[in-house]
């Protein structure tokens, strides 16, 4: 049997708060540790021979419901992360891209995001996508509205696929950490035929070693896409 090829990996990074609570720490400490995991997993993916894109769910359209203090901390952490990460992006030849409605963020943070995209746009070993103020329903709705504004009255599946912000729309494998088994409004359109993997590991404890095991599991699965095999 030929192995499945993993090109686009998506990850719902969940469990930062529980990781911190287990240690009697504040939730923000869990987010800080979680940011280190993003770095480790990204560099591992950049070295992987087939992975082209890794999309991380970093802040959902629903996460604004969290306490103001936590939301503000996450914004500051993102700014710090991108500032620090530029060196990693350049030394590992990684392109950074954001999806989601970042206009809701402060101007300096929007500038940081756009500058990082600009400075890394010719890097080719991996595209790291961060989903920021992202919701799958919002993304589909805004795509359809753009098509309507262009004067379209009928819309095809291809129109929507091509209009989405996500680079390379099909996701081969989605991993969610922390034991929760739900999609939480992540890439609804792009996940139609993705393989799903749920691990009880909390995001700050997730390692490249576990990722490699999950990829091996994915490679052995039978993907039918509605056909027979
Ligand atoms: C994921 O960890 C990070 C974000 C959603 C920003 P959580 O903060 O959701 O951690 P838990 O689910 O409360 O443990
Ligand atoms: C999903 O995690 C969003 C991100 C990882 C950014 P949540 O912790 O917000 O999801 P729910 O509320 O448990 O579904
Ligand atoms: Mg959570």
Tally of strands: 6
Structural class: alpha/beta
> Bound compounds, please?
3-methylbut-3-enyl trihydrogen diphosphate, magnesium ion
Helix-strand sequence: EHHEHEHEHHEEH
Give the overall average pLDDT. Answer: 96
Put simply, the count of helices is 7
With strands numbered from the N-terminus, the spatial order across the biggest sheet is 3-4-2-1-5-6
Note the main attributes of this structure.
229 residues; alpha/beta; 16% strand; binds 3-methylbut-3-enyl trihydrogen diphosphate; binds magnesium ion
Description of the structure:
The chain has 229 residues and is of the alpha/beta class. 43% of the residues lie in helices and 16% in strands. It contains 7 helices and 6 strands, in the order βααβαβαβααββα. A 6-stranded parallel sheet has the order 3-4-2-1-5-6, sandwiched between helices. Helix 4 links the parallel strand 3 and strand 4. Helix 2 runs parallel beside helix 3 and helix 3 packs parallel to helix 4. The longest helix is centred in the middle third of the chain and has 24 residues. The mean pLDDT is 96. One 3-methylbut-3-enyl trihydrogen diphosphate binds next to helix 1.
């Amino acid at each position: 049997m030929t192995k499945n090829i993993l090109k686009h990996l998506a990850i719902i990074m969940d469990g930062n708060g529980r990781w911190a609570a287990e240690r009697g720490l504040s939730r923000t400490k869990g987010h800080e540790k979680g940011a280190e995991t993003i770095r480790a997993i990204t560099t591992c993916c950049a070295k992987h021979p087939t992975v082209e894109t890794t999309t991380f769910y970093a802040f959902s359209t629903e996460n604004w419901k969290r306490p103001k203090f936590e939301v503000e901390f996450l914004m500051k952490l993102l700014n710090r992360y991108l500032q620090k990460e530029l060196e990693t992006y350049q030394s590992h030849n990684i392109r950074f891209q954001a999806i989601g409605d970042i206009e809701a963020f402060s101007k300096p943070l929007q500038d940081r995001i756009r500058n990082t995209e600009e400075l890394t746009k010719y890097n080719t070993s991996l595209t790291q996508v961060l989903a920021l103020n992202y919701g799958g329903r919002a993304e589909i709705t805004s795509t359809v509205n753009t098509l309507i504004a262009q004067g379209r009255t009928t819309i095809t599946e291809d129109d929507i696929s091509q209009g989405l912000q996500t680079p390379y729309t099909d996701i081969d494998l989605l991993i969610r950490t922390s034991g929760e088994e739900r999609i939480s409004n992540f890439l609804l359109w792009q996940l139609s035929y993705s393989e799903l993997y749920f691990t009880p590991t909390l995001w700050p404890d997730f390692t490249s070693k576990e990722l490699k095991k999950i990829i091996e599991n994915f490679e052995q699965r039978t993907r039918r896409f509605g056909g027979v095999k």
